[in-house]
Amino acid sequence: MIDGKRVPGGTLVSANMWLVGRTKSVFGGDGDIFRPERWLEADAAQRAEMRRVAELLFGAGRWLCSGKMIAYMELNKFFVGVCFSCPWHFNWTMADAT
Questions:
Q1: Selection from 19, 27, 20, 16 nearest residue 50 by Cα
Q2: Could you point out which of 29, 39, 83, 93 has its C-alpha 20 to 30 Å from the C-alpha of 53?
């Protein structure tokens, strides 16, 4: 039974990740708009929930994507490479801790 409905044995049940990634209760009323600053504006609890939902893309439990950590490593390498070898130069300064 799922949501009060009988589901025959052997039926493949999955989530629509396009829809899950746009859940308004998690990502806000504008969850269907590309707005990366929402991650900076969210408090720690909301950001943790957004991360938990976003990581569903890689699966969970024993069906977890075996390439998840490789994907994260490659993304990190890409962004570091762009920041330090791009034709324009960034003026990096440490933020004032006070």
A1: 27
A2: 83
